Amino acid sequence: MAFTLAHEVEQVREIKKSRFIAMATPIGSEEEARSFLAARSNPTANHNCWAWRLGQTYRFSDDGEPSGTAGKPILQAIDGQALDAIVVLVTRFFGGILLGSGGLMRAYGGTAAEMLRLAEKREVIPMTSAEAFCSFSDLALVKARLQAVDHLTLSETFEAEGVTLTVSLRQGDEARVAELLRDLTSGRSRLVLPD
C-alpha cells in the first residue's frame, strides 16, 4: 500500500546557521514535478536539491552539493515513508559552517523526512479506465448503481442510439463492475477494458 500527500506542505529548519526550506506536493506526472521544481526553486539560494517518485520512475538532484549528499537522502525519505506520486524540494541558504558529507545527508534527508512525517497523507489508489455503451432506457439505473461503487467516476457522451460511459475505476474492481453492468442491463451492456 502506497500513500501520497493530501496537499502541498512546507517546513523550515535551521541547522548550524544554514536555513533548509523543505517543500513537497503530490504529482500526477513528470511534467507536474518539473513545473513544481521550476516554480519553487529559489535562484538566490545556494542549493535547490530535490527528488520525486512516480511509481517505478524517480529522479533526484544534488544541485551542486557533493554527490549523494542531498538528492538521494531526500528520495530515501520519500521511500522510507512508503510515499508515491510526490516531489520534494529542499532549498538551502548556506550559513557559513561546513556540514561535511554525513552532516549534509542528515540535514537534507532529515529535513525532508520530518516534513513528510508531519504531513497529512492519503492512500494512492491505482485506477484504470473502461467504456460501456448503454441505452437511454437503462441509463438512469446504470448511473445510479455505478456511482455507488467506491472510487468509481464516470462521464457520458450522448449518441443517437444511447450513451457511451467512460468509467474510471479502482484496479481490481473490473470484474465486479462488469458483472454489475451486465446484470443491470440484462446483458445489453458490457464493460470494455483497454487492451
From TrEMBL:
InterPro entries: EFG_III/V, Impact, Impact_N, Impact_N_sf, Ribosomal_Su5_D2-typ_SF, UPF0029_Impact_C, UPF0029_Impact_CS. GO terms for cellular component: cytoplasm. GO terms for biological process: regulation of translational initiation. Residues 16-116 form the Impact N-terminal domain. It holds the Pfam family DUF1949. Gene3D superfamilies: 3.30.70.240, Impact, N-terminal domain (3.30.230.30). Residues 134-188 form the UPF0029 domain. It comes from the Bacteria. One of its GO terms (molecular function) is guanyl ribonucleotide binding. Belongs to the IMPACT family. This is YigZ family protein.
